[in-house]
Design brief:
This protein is 39% helix and 22% strand. It is of the alpha/beta class. It folds into two domains: 2-107 and 240-271, D-Maltodextrin-Binding Protein, domain 2 (3-Layer(aba) Sandwich), CATH 3.40.190.10; 108-237, D-Maltodextrin-Binding Protein, domain 2 (3-Layer(aba) Sandwich), CATH 3.40.190.10. The strands form two sheets. Strands 1, 2, 3, 4, 6, 7, 8, 9 and 11 form a nine-stranded mixed sheet that branches. The protein has a two-stranded parallel sheet with strand order 5-10. Helix 3 packs parallel to helix 4. The longest helix is centred in the first third of the chain and has 20 residues, at 2-21. Mean pLDDT is 91; it is low at 8-23.
């Protein structure tokens, strides 16, 4: 009897092995921008329901981390909330004889987060830059209370850090700016600190208030919204990108084509970002 049971067990194992060998899961890996993680996960989940034979694996780490992974060959797609750097393109060119392929996939605005109890609600682009550069250090200098300004920002591997530095600060951040690993952490810090200020994706501004941003002294303050970000009247607007080593093919191409389709673009607003059109 034991011998019969043993043979049956072996037979079942063989049948299961044969059965599983016919089930092929095609994997596409995506790594990079923390700003884009929630959006990319939503895209991945929706796409995998449509295509159960494809696995889309999404991880964060920052835009720089994603692009480094693309260069070293450990990811198929790099998410980035900033344009690729010349130095990164040169590394791709040296290794793969390609400068990479850039695919804008959504629009976003960078909010300047203020504590709800802060009397300041509007700043010029120049004032924001001076605050994060450490040139303006007290709220009374911009019409607020006589209190020191506490700064929160992203780590240097973040595309949000790079974009904000290049387009707003335009110099080095103040040494007093405390870097935090992720936009949600910045929002949480500003929420707890009346005299603090931070920055990050507009989609994350929960429990804090958005600062209205003026292009200059004579302009009207503009809040980040679907309309102002999509038409670029909000001064701190940007594209979100996917990067590949070369022109996409196979499952990666099919996934990207779907992301850029009407169905994929409609999911963007559910996360708090904005479609391309």
């Amino acid at each position: 009897m034991n011998a019969i049971k043993f043979r049956i067990a072996i037979l079942l194992m063989v049948v299961m092995t044969i059965g599983f060998s016919f089930t092929t899961i095609n994997k596409v890996t995506i790594k990079g921008s923390d700003t884009m993680v929630i959006l990319s996960q939503k895209w991945a989940e929706a796409y995998m329901k449509k295509k159960p034979g494809v696995s889309i694996q999404v991880t964060g780490g920052g835009s720089g981390v994603g692009l480094a992974a693309l260069i070293n060959g450990s990811t198929d797609i790099a998410n980035s909330s900033r344009p690729i750097k010349t130095s990164e393109m040169e590394k791709l060119k040296a290794k793969y004889n390609s400068s990479g392929v850039e695919i804008p996939c959504a629009k976003d605005g960078l909010s300047v987060y203020l504590n709800k109890a802060n009397s300041v609600s509007t700043l010029t682009l120049k004032q924001i830059g001076l605050i994060f550069a450490g040139k303006i250090t007290n709220w009374k200098e911009v019409g607020g209370a006589d209190a020191a300004i506490k700064l929160y920002g992203r780590e240097s591997s973040s595309g949000t850090f790079a974009f904000f530095k290049e387009n707003v600060v335009k110099t080095d951040f103040a040494p007093s700016c405390q870097t935090l690993p992720g936009t949600a952490a910045i929002v949480n810090a500003v929420k707890k600190d009346k005299y603090s200020v931070g920055y990050g994706g507009a989609a994350y501004a929960e429990g804090v208030k958005d600062c209205a941003v003026k292009k200059d002294d004579n302009s009207k303050g503009v809040l980040p919204s679907e309309v102002t970000i999509r038409n670029h009247t909000y001064p701190i607007s940007r594209y979100l990108y996917m990067y590949l080593k070369a022109k996409p093919t196979g499952d990666a191409k099919a996934f990207i084509d779907w992301v850029l389709s009407r169905e994929g673009q409609e999911l963007i607003a559910e996360v708090g970002y904005y479609p391309l059109k």
